[in-house]
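wait is this the right file?? whatever heres the structure
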């Protein structure tokens, strides 16, 4: 099997590097930080129903304006130049096709217009226009086939193949018109929670300043209070800033992770299923005391599958149970016990449409969580991704559409399926991550055999098909190649690269390839790692090395192009990175194997990789550094408390004290789960895993990087670490970025993002590179200010 068996064939020796990846360096210069501005980010390809045209987005950076800009383009599948479809004066995203492929819809916010939905008629040309009934514009990524997945409260609903009706799930009195804030800073962007009227004494107050409806305290003089009044447990988020309180119960989940159940809502009537036939009124299909979630309709329109409480208990019973469980003290055995909080059920559309009160569901028998439900073309079977336990690996399941017991068809494949599609050849296509790679795979339900359709050592993303599923398009990148759009036949043959947005930069810069190695760590755990050689690498020389540690911990490094790694390699550094236990991309068991042991065996996984790299003749083990962000920032600090083998460190978005982090972060649920309770419920673990408790051991010069609006890993922990290092005489610098969140390194302001990249190179260059850093401080040609 292409892309699968090769992993098992790699010898697990001291170092096993794929020989195919060791190639001569391409000609060109080193990647420099200013090159970041020249990158075009190609994404979101959507293939037209007839398979002839791809719509996609291109994001570039306008350096002088310190901003990104996104446009919608199209590309003929037959080849030829790409075509810009939207005005460069406006931001345009989310392309999608009408069912007949004659209209291209996209999203764009433009002044003096209604809504954000726009369209272009492909057969007529001309300017973009706003379609009549903007809210009814298609929301799907055309060409996905019949059935659909839908979801509770989804205004678009789901439809059968002939589009003759629409199924939605909503509370009986729901209008489907939600409101949400735009951007960060709820003070000015959020919908007002207290109606503005002549009798409202708070009508002129900002949303965050207004007293929530159930608040006890009120302002003395409304016009004089411009602070924030908070009564909700969760009142700010890394992505949304401060959020006005609603007065509803909620907040951080309990140690057992209870609270997200089929019963759904915090209050109000249970969500029911409704049917709206073309030209008709909305009619209820169900009338029950329990909620219906995530409906999916069969292609022939005769059946609907939905998710609900396994025992079909009323919502108020489910909510009371969840609230009671959340109040219990932590219990690891109970926490790790398998729970079945929702099951799949099937109803007959004709029967339920005739009499909602008589609608009787049939259960799909499966013990575990079910997601990604799809229908077979003959309407007789469903497939779904099932997870038999909270920390078990997800596996592909098949079940009779009329109800009955599900069958596991996943076979011996250890990786988890992602999005799934049923194809005419009877096989199920899966968009799947396999360690550091990702691609399209096919599984034969009859034989349980898995084959690689599109993949190999690279990252394949944003997969889309034509209506008849004869072609597949996607973005593809690898360690030394930026993403572009590719097309292949449905079986993966005749693959072609179509777009050329980054070809010029690729010809100018010698992006460095990566060398994969797989090694056995403690417990015999198999770990995936990579090395990228520095620009100008010469055999026989020794180079400084930097170990990079990803965030999460449930995320992963991989085979895709990454600006930080190419920046470090361009600065003369050997780049080492791995996916230690706790990383995503393999299966649930591997991902959850670090629970309660952060800084334990995951630390040993990292150190084993460093041992392997340090033993190479081209690595100078006396000049090594370590860097990481978020979980990687915690681990960087932790490592420097455990060993002095690293001569420099860079801690980004760090955590130094878990108890104070819990009180300031927007993500308390992470450690409630990973550390088996809140701080006062498991204080020993929170203390034992906090680097600040061992900071007296640190000797490593450290650069600390932090965003001032990061509510995921708030500033206080970085403050604490910096003060502790400086009080002990450890060389340290602290760089704080304004107007930036936890996403600075990914989507932050371009000027600040590139400044961060350069400072990291300068820091390691000073401490590790002979003769100082291989970076250049330049005078910008763009105007100062904003």
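ok assuming it is, sequence goes like this
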């Amino acid at each position: 099997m292409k892309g699968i068996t090769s992993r098992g064939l790699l010898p697990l020796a001291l170092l096993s590097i794929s020989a195919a990846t060791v190639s001569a360096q391409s000609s060109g210069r080193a990647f420099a930080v200013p090159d970041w501005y020249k990158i075009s980010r190609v994404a979101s390809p959507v293939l037209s129903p007839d398979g002839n045209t791809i719509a996609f987005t291109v994001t570039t950076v306008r350096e002088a304006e310190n901003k990104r800009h996104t446009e919608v383009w199209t590309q003929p599948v037959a080849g030829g130049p790409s075509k810009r479809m939207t005005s460069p004066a406006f931001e345009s995203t989310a392309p999608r096709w009408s069912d007949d492929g004659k209209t291209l819809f996209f999203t764009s916010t433009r002044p003096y217009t209604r809504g954000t939905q726009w369209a272009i008629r492909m057969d007529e040309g001309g300017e973009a226009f706003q379609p009549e009934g903007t809210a009814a514009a298609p929301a799907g990524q055309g060409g996905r086939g019949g059935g659909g997945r839908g979801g509770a409260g989804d205004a678009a609903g789901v439809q059968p193949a002939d589009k003759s009706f629409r199924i939605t799930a909503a509370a009986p009195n729901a209008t489907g018109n939600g409101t949400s804030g735009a951007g960060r800073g709820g003070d000015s962007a959020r919908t007002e929670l207290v109606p503005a009227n002549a009798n409202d004494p708070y009508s002129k107050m900002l949303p965050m300043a207004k007293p929530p409806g159930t608040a006890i305290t009120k302002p003395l003089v409304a016009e004089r209070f411009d602070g924030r009044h908070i009564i909700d447990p969760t009142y700010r988020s890394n992505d949304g800033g401060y959020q006005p309180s609603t007065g509803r119960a909620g907040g951080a989940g309990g140690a057992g992770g209870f609270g997200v159940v089929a019963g759904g809502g915090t209050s109000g009537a249970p969500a029911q299923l409704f049917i709206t036939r073309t030209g008709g009124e909305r009619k209820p299909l169900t009338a029950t005391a329990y909620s219906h979630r995530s409906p999916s309709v069969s292609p022939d329109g005769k059946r609907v599958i939905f998710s609900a409480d396994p025992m079909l208990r009323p919502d108020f019973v489910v909510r009371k149970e969840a609230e009671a469980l959340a109040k219990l003290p932590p219990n690891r055995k109970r926490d790790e016990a398998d729970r079945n909080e929702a099951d799949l059920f099937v109803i007959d559309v004709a029967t339920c449409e005739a009499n909602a009160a008589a609608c009787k569901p049939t259960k799909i028998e499966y013990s575990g969580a079910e997601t990604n439900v799809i229908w077979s073309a003959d309407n007789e079977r469903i497939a779904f991704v099932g997870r038999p336990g909270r920390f078990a690996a997800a596996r592909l399941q098949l079940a009779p559409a009329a109800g009955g017991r599900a069958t596991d068809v996943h076979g011996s494949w250890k990786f988890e399926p992602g999005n799934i599609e049923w194809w005419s050849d009877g096989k199920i296509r899966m968009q799947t991550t396999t360690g550091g790679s990702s691609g399209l795979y096919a599984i034969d339900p009859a034989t349980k055999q898995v084959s690689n359709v599109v993949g190999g050592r690279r990252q394949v993303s944003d997969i889309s098909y034509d209506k008849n599923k004869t072609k597949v398009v996607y973005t593809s990148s690898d360690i030394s190649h930026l993403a572009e759009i590719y097309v292949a036949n449905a079986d993966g043959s005749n693959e072609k690269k179509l777009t050329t947005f980054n070809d010029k930069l690729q010809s100018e810069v010698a992006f460095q390839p990566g060398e994969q190695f797989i090694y056995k760590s403690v417990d015999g755990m198999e770990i995936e790692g990579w090395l990228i050689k520095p620009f100008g690498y010469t055999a026989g020389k020794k180079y400084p090395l930097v170990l990079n540690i990803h965030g999460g911990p449930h995320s992963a490094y991989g085979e895709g192009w990454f600006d930080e790694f190419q920046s470090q390699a361009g600065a003369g550094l050997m780049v080492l990175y791995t996916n230690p236990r706790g990383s995503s991309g393999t299966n649930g068991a591997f991902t959850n194997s670090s629970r309660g042991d952060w800084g334990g065996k995951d630390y040993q996984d990292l150190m084993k990789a460093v041992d392997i790299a340090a033993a190479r003749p081209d690595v100078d083990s006396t000049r090594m550094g370590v860097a990481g962000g978020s979980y990687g920032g915690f681990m960087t600090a932790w490592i420097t408390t455990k060993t002095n083998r690293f001569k420099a460190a860079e801690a980004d978005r760090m955590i130094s004290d878990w108890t104070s982090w819990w009180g300031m972060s927007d993500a308390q649920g992470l450690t409630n789960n990973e550390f088996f309770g809140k701080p006062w419920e498991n204080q020993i673990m929170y203390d034992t895993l906090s680097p600040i408790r061992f900071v007296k051991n640190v000797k490593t010069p450290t650069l600390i990087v932090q965003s001032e609006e990061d509510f995921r890993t708030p500033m206080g922990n970085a403050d604490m670490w910096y003060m502790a290092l400086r009080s002990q005489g450890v060389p340290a610098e602290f760089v704080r970025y304004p107007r930036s969140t936890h996403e600075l390194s990914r989507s932050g302001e371009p000027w600040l993002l590139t400044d961060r990249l350069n400072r990291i190179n300068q820091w390691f260059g000073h401490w590790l590179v002979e003769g100082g850093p291989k970076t250049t401080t330049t005078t910008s040609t763009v105007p100062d200010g904003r």
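The chain has 16 helices and 37 strands. so i think its the right one actually
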